[in-house]
Structure formats: structure tokens, C-alpha cells
Write a structure and sequence with these properties.
Blueprint (H helix, E strand, L loop, with lengths): L1 E4 L7 H9 L4 E4 H5 L15 E5 L3 H13 L3 E4 L2 E3 L4 H10 L3 E4 L6 E4 L7 H6 L2 E5 L2 E5 L2 H10 L3 H9 L1 H15 L1
Parallel strand pairs: 1-8, 3-7
Antiparallel strand pairs: 2-3, 4-5, 4-6, 6-7, 8-9
Length: 181
């Protein structure tokens, strides 16, 4: 399933375009991904970062890090900078399921994750939705799965998000299901 979004510009489109050109396997998840399902920008949710779930293979993860570094992002794990990304380090990141944060001045931080809650990359990938934004194909987690991941996260901020936006999320889910028919 795909959809064209034209109402607002995604500040990370350059990254997604380069990921696509480099054949990176990824899916947007988290609140950032939920925003793709809203009909108007005013319905969007405020988030402080962009969560990108990537297929946890050395080649794929190396391509992700190289792309982000070429775009001027600095990478860190647990607020500690990481430099000299190579296959050994990539394998250690995979082994420890570490979240890598990419930071750049005046840009939203990007969290590179290897699991999306209780769901593996394969599970997210099989039912993702492809949105087209200014001609760039953007793989986004299935809305039902995004909400289930928040429900199962056992994090206070996710419980608050779900409680605060319960009605709005139900309406977005309902609208999405009627558009699938």
C-alpha cells in the first residue's frame, strides 16, 4: 500500500533518498512514523527524534552509518561519540542491539534501532506501508503495529502518548482502514 504526501516537507527526505539509492533496508517507526498517517499537518504529533529501524546485517548497517556521516551527522552510543565505523564495530553494535543516535546541528536527532519493541525488522518490513513524498519512497511501519509497539513498550512516555491521543489515534486507524477497502 502506498500514499502520496504533499502537505508538508519531511526534513529527512535527503536521508531517505540516499538510503534508497544505497539500497538500505529500513522502516520508520515511533511517533515520527505515526505522523505519516495523519491527513493534515495540524493533526500531527510532536516528537523529539526520528526512529529508523534498520535490517540488522553488517552490510546494511554500515551503509546507514556511512550515509549519515557523509551528510555531516555525528554518531553516538549512550551519549558517547563513535568514530571510525568499520565492520568490526558494526558487528558489535548488532551483537549488543545498541541504539545509535545520529546528531547534526539544527536537525532532529535520528535513532538507528535494530528492533522495534517486541517486533523484529522482518515483522515490521512485511506489513510496512510505502509513502511517496516529493517522489521519494518512504517505508513506514504499519499503523496498527506502531500503536501495539507503544502499548507493549512499558515506558511511561508511551503510556502518556497513548492516553493523550487515544481518540485521535482511533480516528486515524479507522480512516486508514476505510482507505484500504
Amino acid at each position: 500500500m502506498s500514499g502520496e504526501i504533499t502537505m508538508y516537507q519531511d526534513s529527512n527526505l535527503k536521508i531517505f533518498k540516499l538510503f534508497n539509492q544505497n539500497k538500505v533496508k529500513y522502516v520508520l517507526i515511533g511517533v515520527y512514523a505515526v505522523d505519516y498517517y495523519v491527513k493534515e499537518p495540524a493533526q500531527g504529533f510532536h516528537t523529539m527524534d526520528c526512529d529508523i529501524l534498520v535490517e540488522p546485517t553488517p552490510k546494511n548497517l554500515l551503509a546507514v552509518f556511512q550515509t549519515l556521516e557523509k551528510m555531516g551527522y555525528e554518531l553516538e552510543v549512550n551519549k558517547e561519540p563513535i568514530v571510525g565505523i568499520d565492520l568490526w564495530l558494526v558487528n558489535k553494535i548488532i551483537e549488543h542491539q545498541a541504539v545509535v543516535t545520529a546528531r547534526k546541528i539544527d536537525e532532529m536527532p535520528i535513532d538507528i534501532v535494530l528492533r522495534g519493541g517486541k517486533f523484529s525488522f522482518k515483522e515490521w518490513d512485511k506489513d510496512k506501508r510505502i509513502f511517496s513524498v516529493e517522489g521519494v519512497k518512504v517505508p513506514v511501519g504499519n499503523l496498527s503495529r506502531l500503536i501495539r509497539a507503544k502499548e507493549h513498550s512499558n515506558r511511561e512516555k508511551d503510556r502518556k502518548f497513548l492516553e493523550l491521543y487515544k481518540i485521535q489515534l482511533k480516528e486515524i486507524l479507522k480512516a486508514g482502514k476505510s482507505n484500504e477497502k
